[in-house]
Model the fold of this input.
Amino acid sequence: MLRLDPLASLMLVSVAGVGLAAGLYSIDYMRQFTAKDRYYSLFLIMMAGMNGVILAGDLFNLYVMLEIAAIASYGLVAFGCRHEELEASFKYAVLGTVSSTFILIGVALVYGVTGNLNLSHIAARVADTGMSLPLLFALALFLGSFGLKSALVPFHAWLPDAHPSAPAPVSAMLSGVLIKAIGIYVLARLIFNVFGAGDGVLEALRWLAVISMVAGSLLAMGQTDIKRLFAYSSIGQVGYVVLGLGLGTPLGIVGALYHLVNHAAFKSLLFLNAGAVEYATGTRDLEKLGGLNKALPVSGGTSLIASLSIAGIPPLNGFWSKLIIILAAVEAGFIGFAIAAVVVSIMTLAYQLKVQRSAFFATTPTASKAWRQEPRSMALAMILLAVACLALSLLVIGGLHDPLFIGPAVETLPAGPFAP
Done:
């Protein structure tokens, strides 16, 4: 069964938008690799898997599509076939398989109790009979397993290796949309639309979110590898989305979905910027870079937009989504979580300024004579995502409580179980 509603539509547009930019970027970037036909095949299979997860209306097809996307991503992480990439892909595959196994056990438990795999029918059964012990255990398995797919702390061990090792357009897809489509999105669907958002589950989400925000940002601040820094940053930013969901209020969910879409744009752009830097200079080490604003003007300009957006500098899109989440936390009485969100935003600004200073504004190294400019398709992809960041800043014209395009998707979650 396939199901399309405003939330699924929002996710499909996010996946398609980032996929378009990553595909354009790949035209020139992947010329340094062999077997490009296999790359594009795996890329499109991963896209199809994510779309299938978003549209799936039953647990079995959701699981199948999730595996299609995950297995394709394992191959894409290892695509360069160097030692670092193969090791990262192996770790990713092992942890991903463990996660998928627990998901399958959870699906079996749900089927054993309810006699059904259709999400609407499961929701109706839960509404009638309540949460039995096997269903609670299945929900716990789903929380941990999709937490791993989302790279929430402490389930994040695979991400800092997988994202830096993958080709830049793959890193953009993994961080921008994959961890959301097969992780956060499914978790939100199951909690709000199937099992019900109980106080205990929402509290677990809030604590996982805050731990991820703080740990991811602290780890990002100590990195000199630009892609590894962005990978740890993804852990912290995903925490904002999960915090908004964990608040369980309409305003919190507005902020969560708005930040989810924003993160898809600016984090994908940052990884494409990092790929352009590595393509031009042959290194990802911030200590060996400098003066790239002159050598790579498109990468420098778009990177500045993405860095300011993810740091939450007004009036860019990241500021509005973070502001909504912070206001929602205050409104719900969670002042400590609101303070944590503000502190993490300041930390994000600190390490993004480090990237800008070290890579783009510092003194140009003597080796810069051998650097090359980013090709046109790569530049076009980065410009498209930078424009998306600026356009997403305008969604709050309708008001903080009802951003354009986000409102209908928000109503999908608090509305409760799927209609049979």
About this structure: The mean pLDDT is 88. The chain has two domains: 1-196, 198-406. DSSP finds 17 helices and no strands in the chain.
